[in-house]
Amino acid sequence: MSNSVYQINKGINQSIEFKGLKAQYIWYLGGGVVSLMIIFAILYIIGLPSLLCVGLVGTAGAFLVFKIYKMSNQYGEYGMMKALAKKQIPKCIKVYSRAIFLRI
After folding, report:
1. Which of 12, 30, 58, 82 makes a 20 to 30 Å CA pair with 49?
2. Which keywords accompany this UniProt record (predicted)?
């Protein structure tokens, strides 16, 4: 019997990470870049000078990348979803009638 040597895949069930961006933030950045390209096309078709279009879209793109990297580092893979879910939990429950407690 010959011995088989198998390599272990240690990255299985790991979330996707690309240059520091984790999980869903890659999709957010991709969607932002696509929307910025559409905005650039609209501004250019309207007739604004091309340098002004590049300046506006470049500034917006830099802001987008900065904010998405900040959210990725602050919240991590699932933290933003947890923070949004936590905001939807009511602080208190008010009951103005005792009828619900008197049912048998």
Report:
1. 30
2. Membrane, Transmembrane, Transmembrane helix
CA distance 22 to 33: 17
In the beta sheet, which residues pair with residue 22? 17
pLDDT tens per residue across span 60-97: 999 999 999 998 888 888 888 888 888 899 888 888 88
Distance separating alpha carbons of residues 87 and 66, to the nearest angstrom:
24
Is the separation of the CB atoms in 76 and 22 below 8 Å?
A: yes
What's the predicted TM-score (pTM) here?
Answer: 0.66
pLDDT in tens, 61-71: 999 999 999 98
**Distance (Å, whole) CA 18 – CA 10:** 17
Please name the residue that has the structure tokens 């088989």. Answer: 4
Q: DSSP character for 89?
A: S
